[in-house]
Write a structure and sequence with these properties.
alpha/beta; 13 helices
């Protein structure tokens, strides 16, 4: 009798085991962005993940959260995402990654940033993070000097540039200001800073009216999320003051700024998906070097130039990868 039930049990195991083996693991991916400009990174990420065999709703589930430029909301969303213990968290921007890094510190929860303008705030080095993070650098901090050069090339008459500075995180954002100061000095330009306690987009909008031609004859817009959330307001004020200006990424040019030189967030999102695939297959984030963007692009907005009564030099137009007409 015992052998009979043993035989039945064996048959049941042989029947059930293949069925269980056929059930694919469903990965849960938490995602956090600091502002709408970073949504293209997540779109590129999802598209590449689909190419890599991850079908949404079948073997992968995404939970995207957007703080809309509000730092308090960002911290709360980051904490909630970590508490939910997904298989992995993706972020876009240094601003969004900082609180996630804080809440996952000392854990094995992998975090992959799809873009980070200042990755050395997050990791030990480009070669090895030394922690649970890896990702793609958007090179935004490294490109501050190039953007000031672009501003000068757009209008060689520029003598003094206005730089918007986010002071809401103390000295952390001073690296961007220092990079701007170094580049301005190298090009023989003076610099005026407008300091903004950019806790949210409403705080930024209060300061936008301070952007005046009397302070300078060119404007540099930084990459900080709360400031970028007010892109349309900044563009209107710059047009009103007839100030040539350069934004931190091509998404801000699509939203009205005159020009930008940057990585493409959709593309960095696709790059990040390859890293996520490796992590989900067992790689440790610390073993995956921080990658640089595959491509940098120059975008110009001729509609904004026309509204300013400003003529973009032909040589700059010929160099552009994309022009908004």
């Amino acid at each position: 009798m015992t052998s009979f039930w043993g035989f039945v049990l064996l048959v049941l195991i042989l029947i059930i085991a293949p069925c269980a083996a056929q059930q694919p693991k469903v990965y849960r991916i938490g995602a956090l962005v600091a502002e709408d400009q970073f949504i293209p990174a997540f779109d590129g990420f999802k598209q590449k993940m689909a190419e890599l065999g991850y079908s949404e709703g079948k073997n992968i589930i995404y939970d995207l959260q957007n703080s809309k430029g509000d730092r308090d909301a960002l911290r709360k969303l980051a904490e909630i995402l970590v508490q939910q213990k997904p298989d992995l968290i993706v972020t876009s921007s240094t601003t969004a990654t900082v609180p996630v890094a804080k809440f996952t510190s000392g854990t094995n929860l992998p975090v992959v940033f799809l873009s980070a303008g200042d990755p050395l705030r997050l990791v030990k080095s480009y070669a090895s993070s030394g922690n649970n993070l890896t990702g793609i650098s958007s090179s935004s901090l490294d490109l501050v000097g190039k953007r000031i050069e672009l501003l000068k090339n757009l209008d060689p008459r520029i003598k003094r540039i206005i730089v918007l500075v986010d002071t809401s995180e103390g000295n952390q954002e001073r690296r961007s200001l220092n990079a701007a100061q170094d580049a301005a000095k190298r090009l023989g330009l003076e610099q005026t800073a407008i300091e903004i306690e950019a806790k949210n987009v409403h705080e930024v909008r209060k300061k936008v009216l301070l952007i005046k031609r009397s302070l300078g004859d060119g404007l540099l817009v930084p990459a900080e999320a709360a400031i970028v959330a007010a892109t349309e307001d900044i563009a209107r004020q710059a047009i009103k003051e007839k100030l040539p200006h350069v934004g931190p990424n091509i998404e801000t040019t699509k939203r009205g700024l005159l020009a930008a030189y940057s990585s493409n967030y959709y593309s960095t999102g696709q790059q990040g998906a390859v890293l996520v695939d490796k992590v989900l297959k067992g790689a440790r984030p610390a073993d995956l070097p921080i990658e640089l963007p595959f491509k940098l692009s120059l975008m110009l907005n001729l509609r904004t130039a026309k509204a300013m009564g400003f003529e973009i030099p032909k040589q700059i137009l010929l160099q552009a990868d994309e022009v908004i007409k």
